[in-house]
Amino acid sequence: MKETNDIYDDEIRIIKREQPKTEEKKRFPKWLIVVLIVVGVLLLCGLLLLIPYGKTPHATAHLMDPDMTEEIETVFDPVDVSENLPSSTWFGDYPDTTVLGYTQRIDTLLGQVALSVYIPYNAQPELILGPLDLEDKTIILAAQAADIRRDNKEIVGSFVIGGRKISEGISKTGYCAILDGEVIIGMAKNSPLYDEAIAKGGYFFRQYPLVSEGKWIENNPQNITKRKALCERQGQVFVVESQTNESFKSFAQALVELGVNNAIYLVGSHSSYGWWVNQEQHRDFFCDSIKRRTYANENYIVWRR
Amino acid sequence: MKWRGGFDFIHYLFISYKFGRKGENRIVIDEFLATFVPIIDCMEKYLVIDRNTEYLRIPTHRLMYVSSEGNYSYVWMQDCSKQMVSLQLGQIEDRLADLMGDDCEFVRIGKSLIVNIDFVHQIDISKQKLVLSDCFRCKYDLTASREALLKLKSYIMSK
């Protein structure tokens, strides 16, 4: 692909195929094109007249060896990656488990909402409390999770980390629980997963619900900014970021259009911090602000390889 | 002429054409070719953007220009509409190059523009202005560097 930087603003480039032509392109003579069209039409007419009535593909199907029609499943069949997900609806790659963990970014456009989907592979999710350690090379995807109150700098809503209760509250009805390495996203004022997270040494936080069981959820804030969400789509969990400024409503509707079953909001805006590591192990940041303010209670959902 | 069958018809129309005999059939065939060969050629020239949830198909002769918007691009069409696509300008350039071959309908101008030269209506180098128009429905005023516009003007004049 040509990079946008390989041309200067004071240059122009004629758009042509790159490979040089070694010899004059041989074209079919025009008369031959017409002959072929006419012959094709005549053959088609002949075939239509010659096809006997009643002979359908089903009539000949039994002549085929049944073994030839049987679909053979192998252990490497990508469908096996998820039990409940047809391969045609799976987003992204199918890396085997020996591959070093990484995050795949897929850019897509739904209506006029530009979305980037970040899919972690071969990594375990968890929550961490406090600023991210830039030296930590095991984190392949990190995004700010629960909000922090402006007045007392406490975490908004219930927050459990490694079975330890950090804060409690249900001001936001969306939740994410991480139990035995599995991310569960939902919407409920009282979720038994909160107690389960404490009992099992799991993780739990609350955020605005965006999508619940395939339907978008209305939220009060009406401002427009870059949005981020933690999504579950037929068992696949990923982070979605809007590249354009969106309202809660337009963002949630785009997620529904993306086929997301459940989604909660993650800390958005242009200053939302975090990073992702691609297959080439290159790290990119969601926000490049070096002078950003950090908080003791800032928290992240991360995937470690 | 008395037709004995389809073969005679084909023979009359094309074999005589091939060997250069003059006659009415040659005019008929030339008209036929003039009508249908461009259509066959044009059928292949669609800029197709097919991503996960996005499918867009634009006939290249209706595409007026493409502008860059970070990792995305806006495609501006002859019906005065624009469409955002999740491809970088370089990727669109590659696809157009594959489509156009050596026909050179499109020119990349600097980092942020690809224009269809068929729609170049006005180049004002002193004002750094490039106007694309079909002189019917759509008119777009664009800005580019003086050097780039000078080169574009020379290229168009040399065609």
Note the topology.
The complex is a heterodimer of chains A (305) and B (159).
Chain A: E1 12-14, H1 30-50, H2 57-61, H3 66-69, E2 102-110, E3 113-121, E4 124-129, E5 139-144, E6 159-161, E7 164-167, E8 174-179, E9 182-187, H4 192-200, E10 203-207, E11 209-212, E12 215-216, E13 228-233, E14 236-242, H5 248-258, E15 262-266, E16 274-277, E17 283-285, E18 299-304
Antiparallel strand pairs in A: 2-3, 3-14, 4-18, 5-16, 5-18, 6-7, 6-10, 8-9, 8-10, 11-12, 11-15, 13-14, 13-15, 16-17
Chain B: H1 6-18, H2 24-43, E1 46-51, E2 54-59, E3 63-69, E4 72-77, E5 82-85, H3 89-100, E6 106-109, E7 113-116, E8 120-124, E9 129-133, E10 139-143, H4 146-158
Antiparallel strand pairs in B: 1-2, 3-4, 3-7, 4-5, 6-7, 8-9, 9-10
Structure commentary:
The complex is a heterodimer of chains A (305) and B (159). With 305 residues, chain A is of the alpha+beta class. Chain A has a domain at 95-304. Chain A is built from five helices and 18 strands. In chain A, a hairpin with a 2-residue loop joins strand 13 and strand 14 (236-242). Chain B is of the alpha+beta class and 159 residues long. Chain B is 36% helix and 33% strand. Chain B has helices at 6-18, 24-43, 89-100, 146-158; strands at residues 46-51, 54-59, 63-69, 72-77, 82-85, 106-109, 113-116, 120-124, 129-133, 139-143. The longest helix of chain B has 20 residues, at 24-43. The relative contact order of chain B is 0.10. The chains are: A alpha+beta (305), B alpha+beta (159). Chains A and B meet through strand 1, helix 1 and strand 2 of A and helix 1, helix 2, helix 3, strand 6 and helix 4 of B. Strand 1 of chain A pairs antiparallel with strand 6 of chain B, so a sheet runs across the interface.
